[in-house]
Amino acid sequence: MNERAIIHVDMDAFYASIEQRDNPKLKDKPIAVGGNPNGRGVVCAASYEARKYGVKSAMSSKKARFLCPSIIFLPVDMKKYKEVSRRIRYIFTKYSNKIEPISLDEAFLDVTGKDPIKVGKEIKEDILRATVLTASVGVSYNKFLAKLASDMDKPNGFTIISKKWAQDILRPLPVRKLWGVGPKTEEKLNKLGIYKIGEIEKYNDIILKKFGKRGLELIEFSKGIDNRPVENSLKPQSIGEENTFSEDVIDKGVLYSTIDKYVKDIIYRIKVRKILIRTITVKIKYNDFSIETRSFTLNYPTDRQDVIKKTANYILDNKFKINKKIRLLGVTVSNFIYPDDPLQLRFNIDS
Questions:
Q1: pLDDT at 225
Q2: What is the pLDDT of residue 69?
Q3: Residues of 223-257 as b/e, b for ≥16 C-beta within 10 angstroms?
Q4: 8 Å CB contact between 29 and 72
Q5: Counting CB atoms within 10 angstroms of each CB, which of 87, 175, 181, 349 has the fewest?
Q6: Residue 152 CB-density burial (10 A; 0-12 exposed, 13-18 middle, 19+ buried)
Q7: Residues 6+ apart with CB under 8 A from 258
Q8: 134 three-class SS
Q9: 87-102: per-residue pLDDT in tens?
Q10: pLDDT at 341
């Protein structure tokens, strides 16, 4: 039986690199794709020239400008980025029929039975030829290690983590390098005295007790074990819209009109997928940066715009006690029923 061969492809500073490619005057300049630094904008992507100053995605545009006064801000052109992503994904189909996109700019490929090093290099060359953009590629025997590898030599990197060397590579790395470990989990592990991946083994029992099923996953990842398959068509768990207002809002009329706009976009996206939804969630971030979310689950699944809008407004009116100005509003739908779900067929027959 062949050992699994997994490739992770991660485009380098994707949005920013596309803008630099399309405008030669931006080459080698620190740029950020995102919102206006004079308002409430957020950085969506930063070029490597900007990253040298500490500019990161999800950072406020105002802070980015403070860190890098010479930074050039550009608006998001999602239509263009999606088109480039489509071309890259087409390249992947030449090499595998098991492709799991993670976002517009990264994906896993299962190339078991092929020479993954040869395939990885060819994919890099094909992407560069087709898009004039560079990608970093990681090759290993599972998804966690392939993704870890692709991030080890950016930009334009190519890294292999073999089973022979996996443990030596993992042991000295900080625990935040484990899949799914964010600041909160890292802090919890640090409080247990665990800072490096190699230290986890001493605390297996405590980790299992404190983190449960998630703890078992952390232990396995620390040993280089990840049995998750590359899944061809990951179904989204939720669909939503959220945005930061240009100015803090207290007027409910503005909130209602914003919900209306969000729901129209959400309806289009669920109609395209031919799915029904049951749960509606409203998210509010206040001007003191505190966040509240409230949800409501319907008795029956729906794709009706009026029902989703009415429910979101109901949540806003009855499940929040709004006594502060609002910085951000979001609406998300979840708890999906898909066209191939027998439950979906039953509801279609009954309706």
A1: 95
A2: 95
A3: ebebeeebeeeeeeeebbbeebbeeebeeeeebee
A4: yes
A5: 349
A6: middle
A7: 243, 329
A8: coil
A9: 999 999 999 999 998 8
A10: 53
User: Which candidate in 19, 49, 100, 106 is catalytic?
Assistant: 106
β-strand pairing of 31-34 with 72-74? parallel
Q: How far apart are CA 244 and CA 330, in angstroms?
A: 9
Rounded Cα gap, residues 220 and 166, in angstroms: 12
Query: How many whole angstroms separate alpha carbon 201 and alpha carbon 219?
Result: 7
The token duo for 226 is 């990840």
Question: Residue 156 is which amino acid?
Answer: N
For the CA atoms of 14, 19, 20, 22, the dihedral, rounded to the nearest 10 degrees, stands at 120
Q: State the pLDDT at residue 340.
A: 53
pLDDT of residue 321: 87
**What distance, in Å, lies between the first and last C-alpha atoms of the chain?**
49
Say whether 106 is catalytic. yes
The amino acid at residue 178 is: L
pLDDT of residue 333: 95
Residue range 33-45, pLDDT digits in tens: 987 788 777 888 9
Q: What type of residue sits at position 54?
A: G
Q: Which residue stretches of the chain have pLDDT < 70?
A: 1, 233-235, 339-351
Q: Which residue has the tokens 């105002």?
A: 62
